[in-house]
């Protein structure tokens, strides 16, 4: 078991794309409760099953297991809640921490979210200048929420805020 | 991935207890949807995470992974839907097949269910004389249902049918 502190931000330009190559992710949820999520993820050549517990501020319990690729594909195609999520992830080291930038596709096309994992909730860190507004506490940006309420269904004003920030 | 055919029956006496020693099980659900279940189970000294797909008649998709005992305990104690399920399981070979008899405790005390796993839906098999009515198609006997609607909450007439059959 590991506790992770994740902070999420909007992204104001695609400058991040020149800093890393993207890895294609396909993921889906067997459960997208607010209290607990069970996620199937294919990340490049690897596949995982990940269980996350209740969000308390930015702290969550997390359990992750490697699973065979063919079983991950079968769960994504047959068992997971529709739609599943497709995105490219760009992993960018910056001033001693790692940023993960997710560029979504499909029903979430247009949405880009940056995430940084930190050792504690009050750790200070430097932001690249293409990092915009923090959205850590906003549940509509959780990957699990993007299944039930994808970006394409958001009101136009909300979409613009994300893209133009 | 394996397809399993399971048939469930009520039990008319405790004669099964003289045929095997019971193993203590503690299990809980991270998801108890009708379309898909995610189960954490401690069975004696082993711990598993099991994902089962949609029930079509008696056929379900199933994916199972070994997990560390301490992570299973943490998920059962902190993440699983309340109540978790406790039972003793008796495994009894009989006429070429394996019967599993579950004697429930806690909120399901009084309930005993026998299950046989078969290679196909029309496979013939011999029943021990302590096997009673078939309940394969009745969703209230699913382990996942016993979390939301435990035996102690069933109407007295339904409880009597199970115990007196």
TrEMBL record, chains A, B:
Residue stretches making up the CYTH domain: 2-148
Domain of life: Bacteria
CDD domains: CYTH-like_CthTTM-like_1
Active site, UniProt feature: 29 (proton acceptor)
Naturally occurring in which organism (per UniProt): Persicobacter diffluens
InterPro entries (UniProt xref): CYTH-like_dom_sf (IPR033469), CYTH_domain (IPR023577), NeuTTM/CthTTM-like (IPR012042)
Protein's name in the database: CYTH domain-containing protein
């Amino acid at each position: 078991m590991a506790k992770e502190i994740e902070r999420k931000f909007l992204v104001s330009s695609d400058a991040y794309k020149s800093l890393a190559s993207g890895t294609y992710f396909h993921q889906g949820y067997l459960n997208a409760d607010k209290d607990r999520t069970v996620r199937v993820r294919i990340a490049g050549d690897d596949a995982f099953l990940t269980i996350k517990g209740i969000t308390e501020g930015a702290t969550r319990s997390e359990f992750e297991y490697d699973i065979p690729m063919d079983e991950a594909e079968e769960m994504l195609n047959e068992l997971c809640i529709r739609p599943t999520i497709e995105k490219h992830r760009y992993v960018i080291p910056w001033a001693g921490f790692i940023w993960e930038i997710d560029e979504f596709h499909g029903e979430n096309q247009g949405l880009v979210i940056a995430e940084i994992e930190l050792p504690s909730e009050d750790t200070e860190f430097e932001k690249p200048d293409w990092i915009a507004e923090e959205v850590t506490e906003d549940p509509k940006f959780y990957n699990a929420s993007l299944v039930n309420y994808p970006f394409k269904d958001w009101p136009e004003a909300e979409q613009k805020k994300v893209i133009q920030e």
